[in-house]
Amino acid sequence: MINAILYKLKLKKRPDSQFERADILNSLPLRNKLIKWEVDDKGEVSLIIPQTQKLWVRITSKIFMLPNKRVIVLDGIGSFVWQLCDGRNQIHSVVNQLRKQYKMTRKEAETSLFTFMRQLGKRGIIGFAVPKKTIKGGKE
Amino acid sequence: MDWITFGWAGIRLEIPADWELSGLSGDDKEGYLRLDDEDMPRLELKWAKSKRKKPDLHKVLDEYFKLVRKNYKRKDTKLNIQRDVNLIKDEQFFEGRSVVTFSWKGDIRANGVIFHCETCKRITIVQVMGRLKENLRAFTTRILSAIEDHPIGQNILWSAYQLNVEVPRRYRLEKYRLLSGYLLFPFVDGSRKVSVERYGPADVTLANSDLESWFRAKYAKAIRGYGFQMTLTTDDGDERFALMGEETRFTDHIPFTPVLAIDKVLRRKTFAIRLWRCHKSNRIYVVQSIAKRDAVKTAEIVAKSIRCH
Known about the structure:
heterodimer; A: alpha+beta; two-stranded antiparallel sheet; B: Protein Transport Mog1p, Chain A; 2 domains; 8 helices; 19% helix
């Protein structure tokens, strides 16, 4: 948290990302297996996210009788992307399919996809498998 | 490779179809834009008005190269810059312009030109970039030979993300919003306003309503205070709405003839909207024009200039 404040006030420089654009485009988005999901009649995906198992969360839930799961419903485009995150489609393939399905420009598709992926990634709903880089000597 | 015409702030050039806007700042007096392809930046454009009759282009270029050194220098090697390289063969390019060409090599390579136009008094820097082993000359020649740094006709071309719209010269771009799924270009000329909006994907935007209901809900605030009529036409399967209206006044409800003389002194604002859904491109376009005169004509000119697919 201290680092976040220092970055915001520009008192500390953010470390350069170890990943280049090509790495991100070649990465595989993978769904968190703990999260169940279902598709309704309209084709929209509902994500059923179990409650965190932290002690303070369990105590608070018991006191306030909160449900032990929450449901996030994705819109049409989100549902389309979610179903492509099966471990077989790289990000660039998802971008191309989005462009084809919704007639978006490359920039539109990338911007909306990256924003969506970032939000899901922050919540631990999705992870990314990045290809190993080739090191000197041709070994991977 | 397909080529398209790109326009911004009175500058017009031809570029490969897969280059898209990735950086933008400033206004028609001074500004910057960058176009990228899938992998890397491809074109940088900088422009500024000059008060001098014959500005020192080499000095301007020195300042520009300071930024280039900072951004594109290879870690252990010097940036290799050359000036007055042979890039442009078309003699017409040099008419009415002072020109200096350049090229440099660092992490990537670039060919470019800086020129000052005697007509519009603008200094423009155009730089085309590519990979080290790429043949840039063909691109550069084609882009530079077709560049126009000021509008020649009645209208100015504005382009972004496959939206190309021509707006009468007297209108100035007030601001812009370039978001994923929404583009907004509002233009002003004194009290006259024209705005162009594009929404997409249309099938997601209109998943739960039709075009007219969506418009009435979305633009309820914009059309409040105007009495208007709406006509629907269909063109190649696409719904098109045309709205024409006038500002309402509280005196409209007063049945007293002398009060209506106010209309002769104070003209009402008229507004015109052209709204259509293009199924081929899966987008919705909205062109609004507000003015005391010619609102309808302006909306028609601007709407007709948009090729939605």
